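Field reference: "sequence" (input) and "structure" (output). Example, Flavin reductase:
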Amino acid sequence: MDDKTFRNAMGKFATGVTVISTFVDGEEHGMTANAFMSVSLNPKLVLISIGEKARMLDKINEAGTFAVNILSEEQKEYSMYFAGQIKEQRNIEFGTLNGMPVIKDALANIVCKVHSKHIAGDHTLFIGEVTELVLRDGAPLTFFEGKYGKITSPVEQ
């Protein structure tokens, strides 16, 4: 199979959208990612996947900490900015949680210290131990087949 077919198949999995953030050398850094999942309840662990060409890879390696910000449907612009889809410079006003920069009003801000990391192909998988989190109500920003979306109604049980 070629790369495009593989990418298209992976795009069939609908995800939420996050911004991964960290703090290095007195500056906040962020990148959009949808490769995020919970790993363990005891201890509380999450996983993010960062590409080898992403500037964020060195930042997380240096900081040893990161935050996962789960975006709401109103925060599409943050995703576009940190994905490099919006080119003009913006002054992003981060909040802070346990000294980490976080996206204000995200559905969840999850602060982690790096528990372990694993190189897998052209990505590094960071397992983060959750040290703090904040939750808010709202609807998530979603991503499916390369496009942003919304959840229109809750699924009935």
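The two ends are 38 Å apart (CA to CA).
DSSP finds three helices and twelve strands in the chain.
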